UniProtKB/TrEMBL annotation:
Assembly and oligomerization: Homotrimer.
SUPFAM superfamilies membership: Trimeric LpxA-like enzymes
Ranges of residues in domain UDP-3-O-[3-hydroxymyristoyl] glucosamine N-acyltransferase non-repeat region: 22-88
Gene3D superfamilies: 1.20.5.170, Hexapeptide repeat proteins, MurE/MurF, N-terminal domain
UniProt source species: Vibrio zhugei
Name of the protein this chain belongs to: UDP-3-O-acylglucosamine N-acyltransferase
Length: 343
């Protein structure tokens, strides 16, 4: 069990402690369930009425809520960020691999850095470079000439195709595929002619990629994921997509080929982005948004029909089908009105 004193918590979070510096905590819990040995936090002021009854050993709050607490208090600029830092410090998640398994297959010319761990049945092909402290989980495949930067971790059964480059301090969850062929074909009289995908995938530093996500290699140029990007589970990133610094994309999203997404964008789950478009920096697209054209200005964008009862939805659908007819009738009425005005 990992434990921290409140003095250590103050150092980790950069907060100001009011209370017992030597008290010890070992876990993070929500206010309603927290007890002795727990850290709790308040990130939404509408729940501040519950602070006085919280039984946590210490509560992380903003300065404005300090006097509402009855236990030890750690005043921090952003309690949610402080929660993330403390949760990291108390994290007991096991490593994807420890040491190098006897059943791992490693090419003779592969470059393996210091303190690298490679799990059972992993395959490391010719020309691969693994930086210091890289962890490769069981059953992973690292294709020819791929490069993985120091401190990057891959969970089980991740497939990294040839020539892919992954930066430092990245995390790739299980069953993700990076560098598979993009969906490129020409049609000759009804027959599909495959276009070899000659580019690669270049991933920056501190990128996290969820489970069962696919990132295709570029057709001619590379697919690029810049630093500090976070991608959720079960996503499709097509060939030649470019995702800018600090962007976050939630699960189930599909990004079609040659789309460019700016810096610090937030894209909700199950969104669909058309190919060959550009998204400006700082754009937020809410869940299930369908983006058919480029977005040139920062802002929040939404589409889709919110859930209705089946009866309401049928009425809405019927009215949508009549829009063209209603539009034509409206144009006719406008023309008749203009003719009467002219008379």
């Amino acid at each position: 069990m990992s434990t921290l004193t409140l003095a250590e918590l103050a150092t980790i979070t950069g907060g100001e402690l009011y209370g017992d510096r030597d008290a010890v905590v070992s876990s993070v819990s929500p206010m309603e369930r927290a007890g002795e040995g727990d850290v709790s936090f308040l990130s939404n002021s509408k729940y501040s009425q519950y602070l006085a009854d919280c039984k946590a050993t210490v509560i992380m709050v903003k300065a404005s809520e300090r006097d509402l607490c009855s236990s030890n208090v750690l005043v921090v600029p952003d309690p949610y960020v402080a929660f993330a830092r403390v949760a990291q410090a108390l994290d007991l998640t096991p490593s994807p691999a420890v040491d190098i398994a006897k059943t791992a297959v490693i090419a003779d010319d592969a470059i393996v850095g210091n303190n690298v761990s490679i799990g059972a049945n992993a395959v490391i092909e010719s020309g691969v470079e693994l930086g210091d402290d890289v962890v490769i989980g069981a059953g992973c495949f690292i294709g020819k000439n791929a490069k993985i930067g120091q401190h990057t971790k891959l969970w089980s059964n991740v497939s990294i195709y040839h020539n892919v480059v992954i930066g430092e301090h990245c995390l790739v969850q299980a069953n993700t595929v990076i560098g598979s062929d993009g969906f490129g074909y020409a049609n000759e009289k009804g027959e599909w002619v495959k276009i070899p995908q000659l580019g690669s995938v270049i991933i920056g530093n501190r990128v996290e990629i969820g489970a069962c996500t696919t990132i295709d290699r570029g057709a001619l140029d590379d697919t690029i994921i810049e630093d500090n990007v976070i991608l959720d589970n079960q996503m499709q990133i097509a060939h030649n997509v470019h995702i800018g610094y600090g962007t976050a994309i939630a699960g189930g999203t599909i990004v079609a080929g040659s789309t460019s997404i700016g810096k610090y964008c937030i894209i909700g789950g199950a969104a669909v982005l058309n190919g060959h478009i550009s998204i400006a920096d700082g754009v937020t697209i809410t869940g299930m948004g369908m983006v058919m054209r480029s977005i040139e200005e920062k802002g929040v964008y939404s589409s889709g029909i919110p859930l209705q009862t089946n009866k309401e939805w049928r009425k809405t659908a019927a009215r949508v089908h009549r829009i063209d007819d209603l539009f034509k009738r409206l144009r006719t009425l406008e023309k008749q009105s203009e003719q009467k005005t002219d008379v």
